[in-house]
Each structure stands twice: as structure tokens, then as C-alpha cells.
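hey m, so remember when u said the C-alpha cells were messed up on ur end? i reran from scratch. heres the input so u can diff it against urs
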Amino acid sequence: MKLLIVEDRESNRVSYEDEIDKFVEESNNLLTHTFAGSLTEAKELVSGQSFDGAIVDLRLSGTTTEAEGNEIIRMIIEKRSFP
């Protein structure tokens, strides 16, 4: 399984990575993950790759709205990069 995680805060990315690594170790499941730290980086990744799932921070870059997170979700849906 290939997971995209869109998160701009380093501390949250570290937490996600720790939990994913723990899950993989305990369950013997093959789960790879790719981080995007910005809307631009997420767009590049979604344009060039397919993912089985995503965790998306809706309020990227400290915005007070969910516009940036929703934008990448719309892009993922339009591309249909999920099975």
C-alpha cells in the first residue's frame, strides 16, 4: 500500500512516520509513505504518481481556511489516482 501524507508541520510528519513505522513493524504489512510539505509539492507528487490512500492536512501553511487541503483532494479525485 502506498500512502500520501500532506502535512506542513515537521512535528506532525515525525508523528505520522513513527506511527506508520510502528504499525508496519507490528503487523508485518508493507506500507510505504511519501510526505508532501506543501501544496506545490503535493500537486507534483499527485501529478506523477498513484497512491492507495492519503492523509491531508486541510489547513496547510497555517491558513485559516481549508482551501489548500481541499484543492489537493479535488486534484486527487479528478486524477482518480486511488483504486
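this time it looks ok to me. Helices lie at 10-27, 39-48, 67-79. if urs says something different then somethings off w ur setup not the seq
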